[in-house]
Write a structure and sequence with these properties.
The complex is a heterodimer of chains A (about 130) and B (about 180). Chain A is mainly alpha-helical and about 130 residues long. Chain A has 7 helices and 1 strand, in the order βααααααα. Chain B is mostly helical. Classes of the chains: A mainly alpha (about 130), B mainly alpha (about 180).
Chain lengths: ~130, ~180
């Protein structure tokens, strides 16, 4: 008797036009504290992180998220945790590139973070 | 072997018809009557959609859109969004912040989320899924540009963040069946 096998193949598919519109929308949302906090609360932002090397807007969104959420009372720990979790992934994504884009984005981010986020050097991967 | 269930898709009864209407509206302005005969879902007949398109009366169009967006069935909501997308090119509506606000409040956030989750599979083709996602993304993008700051802070917009992230990675599930010979 024939054995029937069944597999599911997942194919990433996101047309550039749609992606750009989504990123612009997310940028506007994270430009405000409420939106930044909302994005911060999402545990898995892998789809966003994965395209940072192709779309600079994605990197900007992450930066806006951290900067604007850090200004909210009580969110410092969440911001720190998010940075510690995402930066290593970004390093992997930008591996093989000259790293200039990522480094300049982080350099832009650091002065804007509230002091409370980077006060504990041992727990912050950026310090 | 048990078949995995198909990914959930928005419950659109007449999705193929609706998409034809969507494509029509994105090409022509709402004020021109359609030249080709088009099958319309029953719910449209009571909304005077054809009347609005013949007269080009902004008030009628506005009322039509608002009623469609607020309807309970997906078909009407979908047509309402498609109508809204084409009308948002119209400067008169863009400058009318009060009407814009009414329409924004009339859109169902849950319906937008479902459109953003559209996947190929079951009754939905790849093109249909893509059109649904594109429509939701287009509407959201336009409103982020047009809405005042106060509205942009509300959950009605910020709550769409997670579905937008997921929509960055549209997945199409291809079921492959292999028959292994003895």
């Amino acid at each position: 008797m024939d054995e029937i096998l069944c597999t599911a193949e997942l194919t990433p598919y996101s047309p550039p036009d749609t992606t750009s519109l989504i990123l612009q929308t997310l940028l506007t949302i994270t430009s405000q504290q409420e939106g930044a906090k909302e994005l911060l609360s999402i545990q898995d932002v892998t789809p966003l992180v994965e395209i940072t090397s192709q779309y600079s807007l994605a990197l900007d969104i992450l930066r806006y998220m951290w900067t604007n959420a850090a200004a909210i009372d009580g969110e410092s720990d969440n911001v720190r945790e998010s940075i510690n979790r995402i930066i290593p992934s970004l390093l992997l994504i930008f591996k093989g590139t000259d790293g200039v884009t990522l480094m300049s984005s982080i350099a832009d981010l650091l002065p804007k973070l509230e002091p409370s986020v980077s006060l504990k050097p041992s727990s912050c991967v950026l310090c | 072997m048990r078949l995995p269930s198909a990914p959930p898709s928005p419950d659109l009864q007449a999705s193929k018809v609706i998409l034809k209407i969507t494509q029509f509206f994105t090409i022509r302005r709402i004020s021109q009557p359609p030249k080709t005969a088009m099958e319309k879902p029953p719910s449209l007949a009571s909304h005077n959609g054809a009347q609005a398109s013949k007269t080009g009366d902004p008030s009628t169009t506005f009322d039509t859109m608002r009623d469609l967006l607020k309807a309970r069935d997906d078909t009407s909501r979908f047509v309402g969004l498609a109508l809204l997308k084409s009308v948002l090119d119209n400067e008169a509506l863009v400058n009318d912040s009060e009407r814009l606000h009414v329409l924004w409040e009339a859109i169902s956030p849950k319906f937008l989320d479902r459109l953003l989750r559209a996947e190929q599979g079951g009754k939905t083709s790849k093109e249909e899924a893509r059109n649904m996602i594109d429509l939701a993304v287009s509407i959201l993008h336009t409103f982020t540009v047009l809405l005042p700051e106060a509205s942009r802070k509300e959950k009605r917009l910020t709550g769409r963040t997670a579905p937008l992230i997921r929509a960055l990675l549209q997945r199409s599930v291809w079921m492959k069946y292999f028959a292994r010979p003895n």
